[in-house]
Amino acid sequence: MKTFCGKCKTYTNQTVLHEKESHSVDESGWWETNTYQIIECAGCETVSFRKLYTDVSIDHHYDPSDGGEPPYEISLYPSTSIHHLPIKRFPHSPDNVGSIYKETIEAYNNNQLILCSGGLRAIIEGICSDKKVDGIEKVIKGKKTLVKNLEAKIGGLSEKGYLTKGNADILHNLRFIGNEALHELSAPPKSEIKLAIEIVEHTIENLYELEYKAKRLASKRASRKTKS
């Protein structure tokens, strides 16, 4: 039985490493069968878990003379499909940013779009906290006041040079997505959320991974010049 492989991103043959079947029947004659399998992709050798479920109503429509495999409802663990996004590694980002990012991708892959939208907003909050950006000062009624909402914090990232003004404007769009989801309890289209995730990933990459690589490059150049 071919099953979708999250790593190969296509349906592949699977080797069943271990299997256990559970069959039950009640007094009315209703029966159901759960088959639990540990499977391994014949291509990339990724190991996962598959559950096959069938019952009298599903099996009723199956005619062995037609050929083909018996009908099953298939569940895969971890859940995977061609539309799932991979969880990227950002080893030099703060732990809280990394953990929120992971949960956000998991929410997206499980179609929990309101939670995913809130996660995008929380990632930005986490970045601001890590960079010690509390907001920006504005003159309100003749007095300098520190404004601490997320809009001001994104502006503060730009003021301190962590983001260009153009990049800050892009992050404001993510703020609006989070606001709509959390305050109006309305999830944006999945296509918009996917683009927002890509923007967040680029932001994390630029602020942490690129910065780390730049520091390593500077260190190597300085070491080489010292030796010469």
Secondary-structure map:
Blueprint: E1 3-5, E2 10-12, E3 14-25, E4 31-41, E5 47-55, H1 56-59, E6 73-77, H2 95-109, H3 113-130, E7 136-140, E8 143-147, H4 150-159, H5 165-184, H6 190-227
Antiparallel strand pairs: 1-2, 3-4, 4-5, 5-6, 7-8
Helix pairs in contact: 2-3, 3-5, 3-6, 4-5, 5-6
- Overall radius of gyration: 25 Å
| Gap from first CA to last CA | 63 Å
Strand content bin: 15-25%
Enumerate the spans where pLDDT stays under 50 for 5 or more consecutive residues.
Answer: none
Q: Helix tally?
A: 6
Structural class: alpha+beta
- What is the subunit arrangement here? single chain
Bulk shape: elongated
Can you walk me through this structure?
- The protein has a four-stranded antiparallel sheet with strand order 3-4-5-6.
- It is built from six helices and eight strands; from the N terminus they run E-E-E-E-E-H-E-H-H-E-E-H-H-H.
- The radius of gyration is 25 Å and the shape is elongated.
- The chain is 46% helix and 23% strand.
- With 228 residues, it is of the alpha+beta class.
- Helix 3 (113-130) packs across helix 5 and helix 5 (165-184) runs antiparallel to helix 6 (190-227).
